[in-house]
Amino acid sequence: MSKTIVALATPSAHSAIAVVRLSGDAAIEIADSIFRPFYIESIKNLPGYHAAYGNVMQNGKPLDEAVALVFRAPKSYTGENMVELSCHGNPLIAARLVAACIEAGASPAGAGEFTRRAFENGKLDLSQAEAVAELIESESGLAAAAALDRRSGTLGKQIDDIADGLSFTAAKLAVWSDYPEEEDAPFVTREELIEEFSAAAEKLSALMSGYNTGRLVQNGIRIAVAGCPNVGKSTLTNLLSGSERSIVTDIAGTTRDIVEAAAELDSVSLKLLDTAGIRETDDAVEKIGVERAKAAVEQSDLVLFVVDASRPITDEDIDIYNQIENRPHIVVYNKNDLIQQNFQQQIKADVEISAARAEGIENLKQQIKQKLGLNLTQDSCLIASQRQFDCVSRAKKALDEAVFRLNEGVTLDIAAILLEEAIQPLAELVGKSASQAVIEQVFANFCVGK
Question: pTM value?
Answer without folding.
Answer: 0.75
